[in-house]
């Protein structure tokens, strides 16, 4: 059996996979209180307080036992809710409750971030946040026993969201999180970590002016409403924007196109011979190789050509390849250098 309390209460049969209907506000309150301590006994006074609040029944023990019997029938049998001298226990594992599962995944994601596994962290935190279907403990909203737990879960949800956004920024996904950060900073205008993430995302998408304006807004608001200066972490983000250190990582550049054959294998050794061929090619503008056909003869001339092409691009700053000499150009150069016009 699995119980979901991160939103409206849902109970699913682990074997059949179907949904179990738990009708009645008191029955749902009892189940939610037991689920918060899944696998552990909950005292009778704590259960009475969760169900009836400040208006307990005259016969508390009998009323609670009757309600537990109804819950057992709804869940499928007496074994679903056990009884001990210390109280009643919901017979499931803590991981069968989505709130506990969320906390486990959020911790795993935060750990992955600390060790630099940003891709794993982002995926794990997304899985954790996907468990939320609405406000936590929605069926007992406002109940005294639920208030502390609801506040803690909401804070963990915000922290997990911030961790996931930070992982996305590290992976170069700034453009995907700007709109989300806009909404979050509207909901939490004094949250400095959210403000810092938004400033970094704006700068990474080329909106440095907006990033600096966002910093000025939160700095003014912190001073006016709380009488404090921005934290050292937020000031460091601001300084990084001023220095241009928050730019979006550039996409890997594609290899330049060339008319040389694709290099299928590496060319090892004969550095001196390759250097001599490259020198002659640069002086004459062309090179000639002869011998038996095979991969060695095909790969030999392309090696100095590739080196010289890279060198010429580096020196000129251009990515265009030099045009191969035409046959007439080769004849003129050959005739001028070796006086062999008669051979053409």
CATH architecture of the largest domain: Orthogonal Bundle
| Largest sheet, strands/sense/barrel | 3 strands, antiparallel
Query: Helical residue percent?
Result: 55-70%
Widest beta sheet: strand line-up: 1-2-3
C-alpha termini separation:
90 Å
| CATH homologous superfamily designation of the largest domain | Winged helix-like DNA-binding domain superfamily/Winged helix DNA-binding domain
Name of the CATH first level of the largest domain: Mainly Alpha
Helix count, per DSSP? Answer: 13
Gross morphology is: elongated
Radius of gyration: 35 Å
Q: Which secondary-structure class do the elements indicate?
A: mainly alpha
Low-confidence runs: 249-255, 311-324, 340-344
By oligomeric state, this entry counts as: single chain
Order of helices and strands: EEEHHHEEHHHHHHHHHH
Count every beta strand, where a strand is a DSSP E run of 2 or more residues.
5
Structure write-up:
It is built from 13 helices and five strands. The protein is mainly α and 344 residues long. The chain has three domains: 1-170, Orthogonal Bundle (Arc Repressor Mutant, subunit A); 172-247, Alpha Horseshoe (Serine Threonine Protein Phosphatase 5, Tetratricopeptide repeat); 271-321 and 329-343, no CATH class. The strands form two sheets. A three-stranded antiparallel beta sheet has the order 1-2-3, with no helix packed on it. The protein has a two-stranded antiparallel ribbon with strand order 4-5. Strand 2 and strand 3 form a beta hairpin. Helix 11 crosses helix 12 (295-316).
